[in-house]
Amino acid sequence: NGSNAVNLTRNDSLDDSPAWxxxxxxxxxxxDRDGNREIYRFRPDGxxxxxxxxxxxxxxxxxxxxxxxxxxxxxxxxxxxxxxVMDSDGSGLRPLTDVEGRDEYPAWxxxAEQIVFASDRTGxxxxxxxxxxxxxxxxxxxxxxxxxxxxxxxxxTLIAFASNRLGNYEIYTLDLATLRPPGGETVANPAWRNAxxxxxxxxxxxxxxxxxxxxxxxxxxxxxxxxAARQLGVTREFxxxxxxxxxxxAPAGPAEGK
Length: 258
Fold this sequence. Notes:
Blueprint: E1 15-20, E2 27-31, E3 38-42, E4 50-51, E5 59-64, E6 70-75, E7 82-87, E8 94-95, E9 103-108, E10 114-119, E11 126-131, E12 138-139, E13 147-152, E14 158-163, E15 170-175, E16 187-188, E17 197-198, H1 206-220, H2 225-232, H3 236-245
Antiparallel strand pairs: 1-2, 2-3, 3-4, 5-6, 6-7, 7-8, 9-10, 10-11, 11-12, 13-14, 14-15, 16-17
Helix pairs in contact: 1-2, 2-3
């Protein structure tokens, strides 16, 4: 219930965006304790606080490299919010991006070769990828929604991220092997059930998705409603309702065998 939470920073400033070093020896975070946002490092017991950035700019969203040797973060020290990388002790600062807009929430690939991030450089927030050494920026998502907070899977094949493309913010995944955009390899969680639906590339209509999945499940099970319901993780009542109406809200109820 969170009753054993321990306050590590204990001050009147705004402290946020904590990130662990890979070896668990340190935490980095962003704080305005000196009057503006800077990146700080301290030990998990709250001791040894060290300011890593010294600038009048807005320094936020730090992220350790997998080997713990570098920290990527976002800063507006040159006007726009761009990405920077520094050594874990605050030295060796170098810019990674330099464009109009906000580049934020850097996340390292497990092999430390790439960094994904969110940017509104084209008007709305999309996901992008860049070599950790800098260079050409690659656009990974393209939608009218807001995509952000990317995170690599441990094997580096997928990126999980948040997006409001279905109205409220949900969690999606993007397959980096194919770079198929959301709508091909993403999932959505409708408010009326707990399972995730895979969305077709043709669009984001949940109704269309469900009808397609129902048809495929019935085909694979030889039109067996009970078997198709189990395959989809829904109730027989829901499946019959879907077949009868083709549209509309689903009745509540747990899935069979769940």
